[in-house]
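go over both lines:
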Amino acid sequence: MKKFFAVLIALVMSFTICAAGFAETFELRISTTQTETSMIYAGLKAAADEINEKTKGGVKVTIYPSSQLGGEEDMIDQAIAGIGIAVLSDAGRMSNYVKDIGIFNMAYFVDNYDAGLKVINTATFKKWTDELVNQGLRILCFNYYDGARSFMQNKEVKTPEDLKGVVTRTPSAAPYNASIKAMGATPYNIAWSEVYNAMQTKMIDACEVQYTSAVSSHIYEVCKYVAKTEHINLFNCLVCGEAWFSKLPDEYKTIILEACYNNGVTNAREIEAAQADLEKVLVDHGMTITKVDKDAFKKAAASAYEELGWTKLREDIYKEAGL
């Protein structure tokens, strides 16, 4: 009898272990340069909470703000290697893998969020995301939005000529560098987390940034003027490694993709609605908003498309998207 119970217990333990083996938990760490107080962080958290809830903990999502895990490029490399990491990134950095997608981060490519969504829904854009999969990167969504970027510095700027010789921080990707140079400034690449100190120590003269990040980073403490160029409407993508994503059950894949997309739209609309209030925060903290000759900046930016070979691509996409 004792032998029978021993065998029975062993069988129960065996079935328990096998069952546990099928109930695999997948961990996804989301890395972002955004601070925990930023609006876009709230949108990422909403997506993470929904994924955690709908997978019943099968996919455990944790967000790491303020580049806690490391630099964006390093995180993307780790994602490609198969580690469970998703990175809040943009088209500029994705252009390191699929060049033409970088046009999304060119100056004056789209004028607002709705225009950007039309581009995202084109066959051309889908082709780019398919090519990224071949490079080991899976776009979970490309519709998080952080507003329009403008120049911020300590002198008044109204025309491209006013930016001549102004060393301006911009992300280290060709679309940003070409655009900023075309509009008159001298691009300088450092991490966003270093910009406050770089402005304070006069390592750089200016930065170009969206209102959400300007407010959350207190950039108004080191910059006096906003040149309201609104030159790049900043769409963000949440990207993970295809090696990690391909291991997920189909049900989990669907939950993740839907949660990321839906919360991206909701968060984008909230950020759109908050622009006037964010500008007021900057003004209340001493910044002066300068109205610029936007037509002059748009004309200057056109040379960047020529430099990167995207003039015709821009025209073709506008036609395809109905812009």
About this structure: Residues 24-321 form a domain with the D-Maltodextrin-Binding Protein; domain 2 fold (CATH 3.40.190.170). The radius of gyration is 23 Å.
